[in-house]
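Q: What would this chain look like folded?
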Amino acid sequence: MSDEVLVKVDGVSKKFCKSLKRSLLYGAADVWTELSGGGKHDDLRASEFWAVKDISFELKRGECLGLIGHNGAGKSTLLKMLNGLIKPDQGRIEMRGRIGALIELGAGFNPILTGRENIYNKGAVLGFSKHEIDDEIFSDKVEII
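A: My prediction, written as structure tokens:
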């Protein structure tokens, strides 16, 4: 297995606000502060909570990562940050290559199809050919017909 680090997450944290009005106010204030060259607001403000706090890990080529936790533990939030859909409030994420993650269990899974067929469908959405999926996912399996 190669020692090449493909994903590096260092001290990543993300906070959200329970109040929509207050969240919009904080968001506008944060944008203004960022545009004016000020620093980020790292402390929790009224109605805010940490959805993800101080997560660090590295993934090397050939390794896999599974996220397991209770509802509200921050699994989807971390995946959204890894995909670049939202940015962390603290820490850094470094990615080499492309990443594709199923953010929600229902996204990309069709209960009528087999697991293998769902993988091909998701791969097609991400721009992979059937041949590329066979080489990357099923290379140690028997040939798929």
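The two ends are 29 Å apart (CA to CA).
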